[in-house]
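Researcher: Please translate sequence to structure tokens.
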Amino acid sequence: MRLLPRASSVDPEKVYFRQEVAEMFGVDRATVAEWSQKGYLNESTTPGGLPRVQGSSIIALVRRCTGQADVPGVAK
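Model: Translation complete:
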């Protein structure tokens, strides 16, 4: 069983490649794309059209998965 990343190890101001997020959670990039489509993660795109995942949404997902309360100022 893969453990979730620690919320404290994710920079909320950084944007991450899908591959980086996939490695954090021990899943495939396609799974990260699916999570974004379902609204579990917030993505933005670069001017070249490449997806990037907002660090704050990774933290929010980890907190939801671990049953921690939402924290003001962190994306839901």
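Researcher: Any highlights?
Model: The first helix runs from residue 18 to 25.
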